[in-house]
Amino acid sequence: MMVESATETIRTTPSNQNGVSSLSSQSDSGGREGGSNGDTNGEISPVDLLHLQQQQALQAARQFLLQQATGLSSPSSNEVKQAPVQVPVSMAMMTPQMITPQQMQQILSPPQLQALLQQQQALMLQQLQEYYKKQQEQLHLQLLTQQQQAGKQAKEQQLGNKQLAFQQQLIQMQQLQQQHLLNLQRQGLVSLQPGQGTVAMPALQQAMCPADLQQLWKDVAGVPSTEDAMKHEGLDLSTTSSNSTSYSASKVSPQITHHSLPNGQSSIHTPKRDRARLFEWISSFSKAEPADEHLMPHSKGGYLQNTHSSHEEHTATHPLYGHGECKWPGCEALCEDMGQFIKHLNSEHALDDRSTAQCRVQMQVVQQLEIQLAKESERLQAMMTHLHMRPSEPKPFSQPLNLASNASILKRESDAYPEGLPHPPTSAAAPITPLRQGPSVISSSGLHGVGPIRRRNSDKFCTPIASELAQNCEFYKNADVRPPFTYASLIRHAILEAPDRQLTLNEIYNWFTRMFAYFRRNTATWKNAVRHNLSLHKCFVRVENVKGAVWTVDEVEYQKRRPPKMTGSPTLVKNMISGLGFGSLNASYQAALAESSLSLLNSPTMVNTSTGGSLNMMHVGHDDVSSTVEQVNSNGSCSPGLSPQQYGHQVHVKEEPAEMEEDSRPVSLMAKVSQNLVLPGDEREIEEDLPTEDLE
DNA sequence: TTAATAATAAACAGGA
DNA sequence: ATCCTGTTTATTATTA
């Protein structure tokens, strides 16, 4: 299901590229495959299923991460010129049957790649979880049966042994499952960038809810008691088994158990080998850490290292020690001083299975929290966006709009945003793209990563440049990928990002090189293009300054030069709306839209007379959703009442009231409308795919 | 097929 | 003379 939605994106890839048709067919089948697998989960061997999906996801993931790694492994200083990492693109060489992850990566925009990966991984994890759950239940059932039978037989020792075996199996399952999950994370999710990380790892969230984690902690903490009990051969099954069961019920355990534990012997009983493995496991994280550090400064690896090298540090403070007690999860042992704590740490939390398992869990907790943070951040952003543009947006045509329709707009948007799906980061900002010309962004972003290219699509209607940039800032900074934006939109963005919304040519250059690795080469080419754009487009206004000339943006002009195709009569607008497949769109809303576009047509003077905030806000708002947010970022002065002067002087500098926006307004409206409309639609699709996404 | 748009290349001018 | 900035024209590709 999720896979399908991901491939859906691919399927709609533009038909102008050689490999596209092949892509469609390929992804189509892939989508079906994934879907059917998901449905027949119970029938097909889960291992096969996982394998298949893992391969799909990981293949893409690997490629993506590779790209990231190459971009990020080099000194990440913005100014450092990076060796261009270019992926030779030859779509023509693509055979219909062969879509390499590389090509996928090139076709998909970073956010889309992320979305795809996340969806696939989410799917995998979900299915994994389901499968594990089944296994767990089965096992538990068996255990109970055994208990009953054993009870009847009244053979205490045998019972003990059997139960012990199951117990061990349970524990092993837990561990393996955790490891499995973590492996998946590591392969696909761990190294995502912070910005992108905000949308990453929903999969884990699906696999675990906070309550699970809590329970998990208890259970993992409970492991030692089992261990001890087993050592004494006098285990208290009633407690331990229930513990483990409750854990496993929510967590699951793998069938894989059987091959790692052929005779049901717990790893606890083979400490040497396992410790070696554990150590290896842990060090793998420690080693992996440096590379990822700048991506996830708060990464768990550091934590792990801290934990395990703590005895060497002996500093006055210890992250695991506070208020006189050990802060090791689930420990809370009282330690009078640091020395005692260290002692306790070394004795109780040495490198063993339990500690490692707890570490794993802690990692998951951290990731869980990161996910939560990401979701909340996104929600905040959506809220800000919403509050930002709403009050101003309806103004120009507030009369014709009744409250109800306004409310419906509001609702749609607010419904759409907070979901915090992996996809939305970009799609939320570029809602129009997926449906109307969905793939355009995709194709433009990576398809021709090198050389002279034509790409402008994302700029077509509502440029999601701000949010896209915000989301993938790091990506573009480091990856030698051409940003899928027009020069004009980039320049505009650069200028608007400036504190006083004006930049010299050189500053614009610097912004380009700072923000995009791609523009750190071929400087002559793109600089010429920048100059060309500045001169050519009326939306860029040159203002003589004391110290030279600066460039500003005339938002009105910028909006004017927007796609002419979408302009037209309200009927057209209406038709388009219905044509977009929003059958469910309520009629009054449509009418209101049409009407509002009319009112816009009829009141072109508003544009000029009202240099006030509302006008500007409208433009800003409609242009790209997050540009309002972006203003918050760029200069703290941004507020719902964005000072008109900020645009005001620019508007005045170069004003051509005569030729009015007979078309620009409807365009703006359309863009706005599309955002409001497509989002929900987009949302619906994804919602079906990720039913458990939104957990709260 | 056509028109609009964008990217690219390049010629050119003026100023520092 | 050279570089930077800015304007303009031409060509080509893409898209609707």
TrEMBL record:
Keywords, in A-Z order: DNA-binding, Metal-binding, Nucleus, Repressor, Transcription, Transcription regulation, Zinc, Zinc-finger
Where does the record place Acidic residues bias? 684-696
Q: Which GO terms describe its cellular component?
A: nucleus
Q: Which domain of life is it from?
A: Eukaryota
| Record field: compositional bias (Low complexity) | 15-29, 238-253
GO function term, MF aspect, one: zinc ion binding
- The region called Disordered is annotated at 1-44, 236-270, 674-696
Keyword Metal-binding carried by entry: yes
Signal peptide location:
none
Name where it's found: Nucleus
Q: Where is the composition biased (Polar residues)?
A: 1-14, 254-269
Return the annotated DNA-binding positions: 482-555
Pfam families associated with the record: Forkhead, FOXP-CC
Q: Which InterPro entries match?
A: FH_FOXP4, Fork_head_dom, FOXP, FOXP-CC, TF_fork_head_CS_2, WH-like_DNA-bd_sf, WH_DNA-bd_sf
Domain Fork-head: start-end pairs: 482-555
Name this protein carries in UniProt: Forkhead box P4
Q: Which organism is it from?
A: Paramormyrops kingsleyae
